[in-house]
């Protein structure tokens, strides 16, 4: 204990770091705070901190010019207060100072004095400290003293809301939200919620927005406060509707406002604040729409109408007659920030019901954006995303009320625009057009009307042409789109005339050529992903055809320099194994009894895998230089071993070398243990083991300890990758090995 107190005295006293010139360095001040924080687990340190002036230093560092130091000081005060109250305070605390531990008294007194200070920076520091304090004290064990602390400062906080001279409203909003989350205020009665209501009224719409959306996400919040919070969020949207309409034409979203509507109108009338307010409002609404359980009803139809109005303001397709509407329209024209935010909310709103009355008008707005040459590539991408979501709604709606003609007309209009966008000189536009096409096919491929519209357009031909696009991103997206289109044409059960055998073989050949020859990794990854999808969906024909298909893909993939392509090849192999076992065993992953290991299905299964050259690829991948590839290969082999040896009937290692097959497997075992299979491996049979011999592979699966290898591959490599030797090797590799560098590293 004496040595501890001496050390603490040096840390907290003037003879310590605080007394030297090094204190001018922010990193030293930060390190001092960390040191204090780490030592506060000991009671002597806590007492000494309060008696040597250490607390005053922390209070001063709250206003440090370094944000990192100021934040660390604030967090340290929170820690000191909570730790002292947990370890020293009685269970029942009162508002009397004598009941509180010394350190806690000092911090609370500092907070109260700062809140009453004339210094705006001191007020803001204390509000941030309180916000951090209530934000970190969620547990019920904190409820008693947090309530006492709040009651002590509540009147002062209320006065800040009413005083225009105090410029700390954003911090106040965050503080109130953190207090609302505290268990101490889960009761819906009391003065606190009246203060929250007052804040929603007095804060500006920009300041009140984060508080409002936070309140709406709370489980326990008075319903009248929830409604008021929602009203705050909807005020800008309500103003948009009113500004766009003739008098009495549209009543807007709200029956009444929380704050003065003139404030919102003023913000939307200003060029500098209009976009910012709308983007913040739209971001909050998108968050609310993503919640599974929203405890207040959203006026979805009016909200959709408001979103459409914003989008029309932005592209100049709406000419309002009111002065306010004209001003807002000028502020928003070609504002891509607002367009993207509105389209995000529009996409989220597609999952809500009762919006069908506006669906035709909505698609008019979306089509106008898709057609306009002024739509930027990023806004176009968002428009495509929203359109694909609403096309699903349109399809569901037409199925229920037989509005096929409207649906068909919209689909035709969308595909006409898509054809033009696929020919755009801008590669980003071509890329997002292909992504949109893929999304449409995924959602609508089972719909007869969609297939008819698609096949009667030029979309298929244009998409296939983009397989040769100069941009690799576009080629990759074209591969994905062509792969999904094939599910509608070539591989569809009721394949139309153009999806004949020639086209199927042509598409497969083109994708295999890309896998073999494309110089960029993105298109090759897309091909292997599509091949795996086709295999999952049973599009590759009978077992014999599938076996040949998989074999060709494996022989291409195993030579690929991109590890993600090789990893994709292993996923394809895993799917093939699963499907083949299911097909030949009549049950997915059906293990066979040890007595049946020589049965015809088992032999046939091994022969299929060997002919497809699976084992050469799998065992070769075990020593891949990229760890994820080796891990996946081992996972597949462990799965196969579990099928062929369900009762763990492994071969006796002593008997392995009694046959030519056994000697090859013994070589494979040794080579795998050395991790050098990649250097000694060849699928041509000169590696010492015949990977296409069923007997050898059956023996290998039983004899090689794949589980041990699995553990080794999954073991963390931090001890190698983060070692000093590894780091120095990286440095040498980067700067070049010359004599001076070598000496320094040594």
UniProtKB/TrEMBL annotation:
The keyword Cytoplasm applies. It is found in: Cytoplasm. InterPro entries: ARM-like (IPR011989), ARM-type_fold (IPR016024), BRAT1 (IPR038904). It comes from the Eukaryota. One of its GO terms (cellular component) is cytoplasm. Its main location: cytoplasm. GO terms for biological process: cell population proliferation; DNA damage response. Keywords: Cytoplasm. Belongs to the BRAT1 family. This is BRAT1 protein.
């Amino acid at each position: 204990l004496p040595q501890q107190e001496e050390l603490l005295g040096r840390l907290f006293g003037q003879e310590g770091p605080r007394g030297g010139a090094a204190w001018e360095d922010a990193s030293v001040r930060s390190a001092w705070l960390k040191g204090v924080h780490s030592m506060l687990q000991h009671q002597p340190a806590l007492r000494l901190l309060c008696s040597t002036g250490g607390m005053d230093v922390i209070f001063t560092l709250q206003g440090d010019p370094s944000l990192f130091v100021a934040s660390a000081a604030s967090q340290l005060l929170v820690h000191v207060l909570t730790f002292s109250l947990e370890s020293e305070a009685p269970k029942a605390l009162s508002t009397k100072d004598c009941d509180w531990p010394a350190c806690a008294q000092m911090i609370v007194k500092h907070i109260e004095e700062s809140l009453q200070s004339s210094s705006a920076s001191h007020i803001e520091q204390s509000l941030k400290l309180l916000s951090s304090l209530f934000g970190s004290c969620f547990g019920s064990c904190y409820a008693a003293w947090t309530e006492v602390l709040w009651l002590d400062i509540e009147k002062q906080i209320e006065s800040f809301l009413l005083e225009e001279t105090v410029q700390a409203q954003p911090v106040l909003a965050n503080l109130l939200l953190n207090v609302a989350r505290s268990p101490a205020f889960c009761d819906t009665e009391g003065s606190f919620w009246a203060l929250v209501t007052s804040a929603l009224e007095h804060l500006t719409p920009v300041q009140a927005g984060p508080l409002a959306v936070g309140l709406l996400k709370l489980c326990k919040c008075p319903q009248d406060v929830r409604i008021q919070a929602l009203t705050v969020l909807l005020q800008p949207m309500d103003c948009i509707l009113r500004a766009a309409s003739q008098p009495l034409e549209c009543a807007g979203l709200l029956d009444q406002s929380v704050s003065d509507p003139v404030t919102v109108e003023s913000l939307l009338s200003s060029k500098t604040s209009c976009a910012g307010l709308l983007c913040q409002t739209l971001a909050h609404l998108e968050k609310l729409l993503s919640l599974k359980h929203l405890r207040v009803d959203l006026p979805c139809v009016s909200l959709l109408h408001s979103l459409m109005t914003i989008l029309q303001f932005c592209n100049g397709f709406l000419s309002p007659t009111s002065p306010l509407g004209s001003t807002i329209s000028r502020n928003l024209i070609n504002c891509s920030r607002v367009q993207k935010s509105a389209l995000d909310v529009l996409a989220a709103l597609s999952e809500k019901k009762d919006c069908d009355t506006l669906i035709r008008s909505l698609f008019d707005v979306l089509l106008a954006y898709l057609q306009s040459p002024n739509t930027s590539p990023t806004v176009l991408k968002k428009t495509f995303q929203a359109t694909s979501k609403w096309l699903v709604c349109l399809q569901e709606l037409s199925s229920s009320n037989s509005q096929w003609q409207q649906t068909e007309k919209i689909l035709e209009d969308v595909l006409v625009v898509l054809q033009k966008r696929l020919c755009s000189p801008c590669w980003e536009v071509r890329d997002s057009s292909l992504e949109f096409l893929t999304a449409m096919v995924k959602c609508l491929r089972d719909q007869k009307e969609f297939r008819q519209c698609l096949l009667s357009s030029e979309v298929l031909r244009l998409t296939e042409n983009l397989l040769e696009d100069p941009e690799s991103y576009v080629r990759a997206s074209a591969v994905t789109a062509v792969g999904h289109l094939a599910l509608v044409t070539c591989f569809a059960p009721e394949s139309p005339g153009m999806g004949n055998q020639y086209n199927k073989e042509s598409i497969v050949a083109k994708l295999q050529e890309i896998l073999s020859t494309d110089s960029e990794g993105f298109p090759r990854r897309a091909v292997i992903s599509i091949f795996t999808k086709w295999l999952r969906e049973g599009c590759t024909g009978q077992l014999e055809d599938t076996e040949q298909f998989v074999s060709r893909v494996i022989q291409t993939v195993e030579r690929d320099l991109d590890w993600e392509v090789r990893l994709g090849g292993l996923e394809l192999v895993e799917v093939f194994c699963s499907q083949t076992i299911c097909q030949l065993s009549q049950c997915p992953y059906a293990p066979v009894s040890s007595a049946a290991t020589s049965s015809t299905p088992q032999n046939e299964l091994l022969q299929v895998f060997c002919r497809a050259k699976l084992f050469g690829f799998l065992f070769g991948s075990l020593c891949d230089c990229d760890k994820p590839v080796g891990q996946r290969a081992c996972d597949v082999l462990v799965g196969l071993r579990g099928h062929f040896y369900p009762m763990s009937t492994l071969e006796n290692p002593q008997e392995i070398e009694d046959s030519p097959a056994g000697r090859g497997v013994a070589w494979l075992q040794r080579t795998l243990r050395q991790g050098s299979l990649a250097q000694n491996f060849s699928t041509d049979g000169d590696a010492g083991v015949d990977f296409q011999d069923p007997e050898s592979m059956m023996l290998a699966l039983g004899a090689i300890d794949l589980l041990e290898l699995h553990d080794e591959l999954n073991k963390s490599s931090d001890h190698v990758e983060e070692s000093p030797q590894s780091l120095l090797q990286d440095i040498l590799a980067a700067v070049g090995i010359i004599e001076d560098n070598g000496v320094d590293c040594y």
